[in-house]
Structure prediction request, 303 residues.
Amino acid sequence: MSGIVRIIYLLAIISLGLGHFGYSNRDQHVWVKKFKSCGGKLQSPISISSSRSLALPLPALEVIGYHNFLPRPLSLKNTGHSVEVDIDNVQRSTHLPYIYGAALKANVEYVVDHLHFHWGAKNNRGSEHVLNGVRYPMEMHIVHRNKAYSNFSHALNYEDGLVVLGIFFQLQEEDNKLLSPILNDLINVKWLHKETTLDRPVTLASLLPRNTDVFYTYKGSLTTPPCSEVVTWIIFSTPTPISFTQINKFRPLSNGEAKMADNFRILQHVGLRKVYVRRLNSLLIAKYNGTTFNSTNLEWFWR
Prediction:
Protein backbone atom coordinates (compact mmCIF):
# COMPACT_ATOMS: atom_id res chain seq x y z
CA MET A 1 0.00 0.00 0.00
CA SER A 2 1.54 3.36 -1.06
CA GLY A 3 1.97 6.20 1.44
CA ILE A 4 -0.77 8.32 -0.14
CA VAL A 5 -3.25 5.43 -0.26
CA ARG A 6 -2.45 4.56 3.38
CA ILE A 7 -3.13 8.15 4.47
CA ILE A 8 -6.46 8.23 2.62
CA TYR A 9 -7.42 4.90 4.18
CA LEU A 10 -6.57 6.10 7.70
CA LEU A 11 -8.47 9.34 7.20
CA ALA A 12 -11.51 7.32 6.16
CA ILE A 13 -11.24 5.19 9.31
CA ILE A 14 -10.88 8.30 11.49
CA SER A 15 -13.87 9.87 9.79
CA LEU A 16 -16.00 6.81 10.48
CA GLY A 17 -14.86 6.83 14.10
CA LEU A 18 -16.25 10.35 14.48
CA GLY A 19 -19.61 9.24 13.16
CA HIS A 20 -19.08 10.47 9.60
CA PHE A 21 -19.12 8.30 6.50
CA GLY A 22 -19.02 8.78 2.77
CA TYR A 23 -20.89 7.25 -0.15
CA SER A 24 -18.10 6.78 -2.70
CA ASN A 25 -17.33 3.14 -3.51
CA ARG A 26 -14.06 3.42 -1.57
CA ASP A 27 -15.80 4.95 1.45
CA GLN A 28 -18.49 2.29 1.52
CA HIS A 29 -15.94 -0.52 1.49
CA VAL A 30 -14.41 1.03 4.63
CA TRP A 31 -17.70 0.96 6.59
CA VAL A 32 -17.21 -2.66 7.62
CA LYS A 33 -13.81 -1.84 9.16
CA LYS A 34 -15.53 0.21 11.84
CA PHE A 35 -18.99 -1.34 11.86
CA LYS A 36 -18.86 -5.13 11.61
CA SER A 37 -22.59 -5.40 10.95
CA CYS A 38 -22.04 -3.71 7.58
CA GLY A 39 -20.50 -7.01 6.43
CA GLY A 40 -23.43 -9.12 7.59
CA LYS A 41 -25.65 -11.44 5.55
CA LEU A 42 -28.88 -9.44 5.99
CA GLN A 43 -27.75 -6.14 4.55
CA SER A 44 -29.83 -3.59 2.67
CA PRO A 45 -30.61 -2.30 0.09
CA ILE A 46 -31.22 -5.08 -2.40
CA SER A 47 -32.45 -5.51 -5.95
CA ILE A 48 -36.07 -6.71 -5.93
CA SER A 49 -37.56 -8.76 -8.74
CA SER A 50 -41.28 -9.40 -9.09
CA SER A 51 -40.70 -12.75 -10.75
CA ARG A 52 -38.45 -13.95 -7.92
CA SER A 53 -40.64 -12.69 -5.09
CA LEU A 54 -43.09 -14.99 -3.36
CA ALA A 55 -46.67 -13.77 -3.82
CA LEU A 56 -49.04 -14.03 -0.86
CA PRO A 57 -52.40 -12.45 0.03
CA LEU A 58 -50.84 -10.76 3.04
CA PRO A 59 -52.91 -8.54 5.34
CA ALA A 60 -52.91 -4.84 4.51
CA LEU A 61 -50.44 -2.53 6.18
CA GLU A 62 -52.51 -0.58 8.68
CA VAL A 63 -51.42 3.05 9.10
CA ILE A 64 -52.91 4.81 12.12
CA GLY A 65 -52.69 8.57 12.46
CA TYR A 66 -51.12 9.02 9.03
CA HIS A 67 -53.86 11.46 8.01
CA ASN A 68 -53.40 13.63 11.09
CA PHE A 69 -51.00 16.56 11.13
CA LEU A 70 -47.74 15.58 12.80
CA PRO A 71 -47.07 17.21 16.18
CA ARG A 72 -45.34 20.55 15.88
CA PRO A 73 -42.79 22.03 15.88
CA LEU A 74 -41.20 19.72 13.32
CA SER A 75 -37.49 20.07 12.63
CA LEU A 76 -35.86 19.59 9.24
CA LYS A 77 -32.09 19.15 9.34
CA ASN A 78 -29.11 18.46 7.14
CA THR A 79 -27.28 15.52 8.75
CA GLY A 80 -24.50 15.44 6.16
CA HIS A 81 -25.81 12.08 4.95
CA SER A 82 -29.40 13.05 4.20
CA VAL A 83 -32.07 15.61 4.98
CA GLU A 84 -34.18 14.38 7.87
CA VAL A 85 -37.48 15.20 9.52
CA ASP A 86 -37.37 14.29 13.22
CA ILE A 87 -40.76 13.25 14.53
CA ASP A 88 -40.21 11.22 17.72
CA ASN A 89 -37.43 13.41 19.03
CA VAL A 90 -37.54 16.18 21.67
CA GLN A 91 -41.26 15.94 22.21
CA ARG A 92 -42.48 12.42 22.90
CA SER A 93 -46.14 11.82 22.21
CA THR A 94 -48.47 8.89 22.71
CA HIS A 95 -50.42 10.16 19.71
CA LEU A 96 -47.71 9.71 17.09
CA PRO A 97 -48.69 7.73 13.98
CA TYR A 98 -48.00 4.00 14.06
CA ILE A 99 -48.32 0.93 11.85
CA TYR A 100 -49.17 -2.75 12.19
CA GLY A 101 -50.37 -5.64 10.02
CA ALA A 102 -48.76 -6.71 6.74
CA ALA A 103 -46.18 -9.43 7.50
CA LEU A 104 -45.39 -8.04 10.94
CA LYS A 105 -45.86 -10.01 14.15
CA ALA A 106 -49.42 -10.06 15.45
CA ASN A 107 -50.29 -7.43 18.06
CA VAL A 108 -47.00 -5.58 17.57
CA GLU A 109 -47.16 -1.86 16.75
CA TYR A 110 -44.42 0.36 15.36
CA VAL A 111 -44.44 4.10 16.07
CA VAL A 112 -42.93 6.59 13.60
CA ASP A 113 -39.47 7.89 14.52
CA HIS A 114 -38.23 9.96 11.58
CA LEU A 115 -38.06 10.14 7.80
CA HIS A 116 -35.24 10.91 5.41
CA PHE A 117 -34.37 10.87 1.70
CA HIS A 118 -31.81 9.39 -0.70
CA TRP A 119 -31.39 11.00 -4.14
CA GLY A 120 -29.14 11.13 -7.17
CA ALA A 121 -27.18 13.85 -8.92
CA LYS A 122 -28.84 12.68 -12.14
CA ASN A 123 -32.34 11.45 -12.91
CA ASN A 124 -31.23 7.88 -13.67
CA ARG A 125 -30.15 7.11 -10.10
CA GLY A 126 -30.81 7.98 -6.49
CA SER A 127 -33.00 5.29 -4.91
CA GLU A 128 -31.37 2.69 -2.71
CA HIS A 129 -33.52 -0.28 -3.66
CA VAL A 130 -33.90 -1.31 -7.27
CA LEU A 131 -37.23 -2.72 -8.46
CA ASN A 132 -37.33 -4.87 -11.60
CA GLY A 133 -34.11 -3.30 -12.82
CA VAL A 134 -35.31 0.28 -12.28
CA ARG A 135 -33.41 2.65 -10.02
CA TYR A 136 -35.65 5.63 -9.31
CA PRO A 137 -34.26 9.17 -8.86
CA MET A 138 -35.17 9.28 -5.16
CA GLU A 139 -36.30 7.07 -2.29
CA MET A 140 -37.80 8.11 1.04
CA HIS A 141 -37.59 6.05 4.21
CA ILE A 142 -40.19 6.42 6.96
CA VAL A 143 -38.56 4.77 9.97
CA HIS A 144 -40.65 3.20 12.75
CA ARG A 145 -39.51 1.60 16.01
CA ASN A 146 -41.19 -1.20 17.91
CA LYS A 147 -43.31 0.35 20.68
CA ALA A 148 -41.83 -2.19 23.10
CA TYR A 149 -38.52 -0.30 22.96
CA SER A 150 -38.06 3.12 24.52
CA ASN A 151 -36.20 4.84 21.69
CA PHE A 152 -34.41 4.36 18.37
CA SER A 153 -31.07 3.39 19.95
CA HIS A 154 -32.78 0.86 22.19
CA ALA A 155 -34.58 -0.69 19.20
CA LEU A 156 -31.25 -1.30 17.42
CA ASN A 157 -30.52 -4.08 19.91
CA TYR A 158 -33.43 -6.30 18.82
CA GLU A 159 -34.11 -8.14 15.57
CA ASP A 160 -37.71 -6.86 15.54
CA GLY A 161 -36.62 -3.34 16.45
CA LEU A 162 -37.50 -1.37 13.31
CA VAL A 163 -39.82 -1.26 10.32
CA VAL A 164 -38.92 1.02 7.43
CA LEU A 165 -41.34 1.99 4.68
CA GLY A 166 -39.54 2.55 1.38
CA ILE A 167 -41.22 4.93 -1.08
CA PHE A 168 -39.88 5.51 -4.59
CA PHE A 169 -40.29 8.84 -6.38
CA GLN A 170 -41.04 9.09 -10.10
CA LEU A 171 -40.49 12.22 -12.16
CA GLN A 172 -43.30 14.15 -13.81
CA GLU A 173 -43.66 17.65 -15.28
CA GLU A 174 -46.11 19.07 -12.74
CA ASP A 175 -45.25 19.81 -9.12
CA ASN A 176 -46.63 17.48 -6.48
CA LYS A 177 -48.10 20.10 -4.14
CA LEU A 178 -48.41 17.57 -1.31
CA LEU A 179 -44.62 17.65 -0.98
CA SER A 180 -44.43 21.44 -0.58
CA PRO A 181 -44.44 21.58 3.25
CA ILE A 182 -41.05 19.85 3.27
CA LEU A 183 -39.53 20.89 -0.05
CA ASN A 184 -40.15 24.62 0.42
CA ASP A 185 -37.83 24.64 3.43
CA LEU A 186 -34.94 22.71 1.86
CA ILE A 187 -33.25 26.00 0.99
CA ASN A 188 -32.86 26.66 4.71
CA VAL A 189 -30.81 23.49 5.31
CA LYS A 190 -28.39 23.69 2.40
CA TRP A 191 -25.33 23.51 4.63
CA LEU A 192 -24.12 20.76 6.96
CA HIS A 193 -25.87 20.65 10.37
CA LYS A 194 -28.28 23.43 9.42
CA GLU A 195 -31.71 22.94 10.97
CA THR A 196 -35.01 24.70 10.53
CA THR A 197 -38.59 24.42 11.70
CA LEU A 198 -41.11 23.48 9.03
CA ASP A 199 -43.47 26.38 8.36
CA ARG A 200 -46.42 24.28 7.27
CA PRO A 201 -48.13 21.23 8.83
CA VAL A 202 -47.35 17.79 7.41
CA THR A 203 -49.23 14.50 7.24
CA LEU A 204 -47.47 11.23 6.50
CA ALA A 205 -50.38 10.16 4.27
CA SER A 206 -49.51 12.99 1.86
CA LEU A 207 -46.08 11.41 1.28
CA LEU A 208 -47.31 7.90 0.50
CA PRO A 209 -48.06 6.63 -3.01
CA ARG A 210 -51.71 6.60 -4.08
CA ASN A 211 -51.73 2.81 -4.13
CA THR A 212 -50.31 1.01 -1.10
CA ASP A 213 -52.05 -2.31 -1.77
CA VAL A 214 -48.99 -3.93 -3.35
CA PHE A 215 -45.74 -4.01 -1.42
CA TYR A 216 -42.60 -6.10 -1.06
CA THR A 217 -41.24 -7.12 2.31
CA TYR A 218 -38.02 -8.76 3.50
CA LYS A 219 -35.62 -8.85 6.48
CA GLY A 220 -32.72 -6.45 6.21
CA SER A 221 -30.69 -3.70 7.81
CA LEU A 222 -30.14 0.00 8.12
CA THR A 223 -28.56 1.24 4.88
CA THR A 224 -26.11 3.44 6.78
CA PRO A 225 -23.62 2.64 9.56
CA PRO A 226 -23.96 0.90 11.97
CA CYS A 227 -25.94 -1.23 9.42
CA SER A 228 -27.87 -2.95 12.24
CA GLU A 229 -29.74 -6.02 10.96
CA VAL A 230 -32.97 -5.19 12.78
CA VAL A 231 -35.18 -3.90 9.95
CA THR A 232 -38.29 -5.36 8.37
CA TRP A 233 -38.52 -3.55 5.06
CA ILE A 234 -41.82 -2.72 3.36
CA ILE A 235 -41.28 -1.36 -0.16
CA PHE A 236 -44.25 -0.02 -2.11
CA SER A 237 -44.34 -0.85 -5.81
CA THR A 238 -46.20 2.34 -6.79
CA PRO A 239 -44.00 5.45 -6.73
CA THR A 240 -44.95 8.91 -5.48
CA PRO A 241 -44.77 11.65 -8.15
CA ILE A 242 -42.28 14.52 -7.95
CA SER A 243 -41.47 17.18 -10.54
CA PHE A 244 -38.09 17.95 -12.09
CA THR A 245 -38.14 21.34 -10.36
CA GLN A 246 -38.88 19.77 -6.99
CA ILE A 247 -36.17 17.10 -7.09
CA ASN A 248 -33.65 19.74 -8.11
CA LYS A 249 -34.22 21.39 -4.72
CA PHE A 250 -32.41 18.46 -3.11
CA ARG A 251 -29.36 18.53 -5.35
CA PRO A 252 -27.61 21.70 -4.04
CA LEU A 253 -27.60 20.36 -0.46
CA SER A 254 -24.06 20.07 0.93
CA ASN A 255 -22.42 17.52 3.22
CA GLY A 256 -19.75 20.04 4.22
CA GLU A 257 -17.29 19.06 1.51
CA ALA A 258 -19.35 18.60 -1.63
CA LYS A 259 -22.92 18.14 -2.80
CA MET A 260 -24.75 15.42 -0.92
CA ALA A 261 -26.37 13.88 -4.01
CA ASP A 262 -25.80 10.17 -4.76
CA ASN A 263 -26.24 9.35 -1.07
CA PHE A 264 -27.32 5.77 -1.72
CA ARG A 265 -25.65 2.52 -0.71
CA ILE A 266 -24.31 -0.11 -3.08
CA LEU A 267 -26.72 -3.02 -3.60
CA GLN A 268 -26.22 -5.92 -1.20
CA HIS A 269 -26.54 -9.66 -1.80
CA VAL A 270 -29.97 -11.16 -1.12
CA GLY A 271 -28.39 -14.46 -0.07
CA LEU A 272 -30.82 -16.92 1.51
CA ARG A 273 -33.46 -14.32 2.24
CA LYS A 274 -36.99 -14.59 0.89
CA VAL A 275 -38.72 -11.53 -0.54
CA TYR A 276 -42.50 -11.55 -0.34
CA VAL A 277 -44.93 -9.49 -2.37
CA ARG A 278 -48.49 -8.78 -1.31
CA ARG A 279 -50.97 -9.62 -4.05
CA LEU A 280 -54.73 -10.11 -3.83
CA ASN A 281 -55.47 -11.94 -7.07
CA SER A 282 -58.34 -14.44 -7.10
CA LEU A 283 -56.13 -17.54 -7.40
CA LEU A 284 -54.10 -16.66 -4.32
CA ILE A 285 -57.18 -15.75 -2.29
CA ALA A 286 -58.88 -19.01 -3.30
CA LYS A 287 -55.77 -20.95 -2.26
CA TYR A 288 -56.15 -19.58 1.25
CA ASN A 289 -59.92 -20.11 1.41
CA GLY A 290 -60.88 -16.53 0.72
CA THR A 291 -58.90 -15.03 3.57
CA THR A 292 -55.64 -13.16 3.85
CA PHE A 293 -52.56 -15.16 4.68
CA ASN A 294 -51.73 -15.70 8.36
CA SER A 295 -48.20 -14.35 8.58
CA THR A 296 -47.56 -15.54 12.15
CA ASN A 297 -45.34 -18.42 11.02
CA LEU A 298 -43.95 -16.80 7.89
CA GLU A 299 -40.50 -18.13 6.96
CA TRP A 300 -38.04 -15.42 5.95
CA PHE A 301 -35.17 -17.62 4.79
CA TRP A 302 -34.58 -20.48 2.36
CA ARG A 303 -33.48 -23.64 4.09
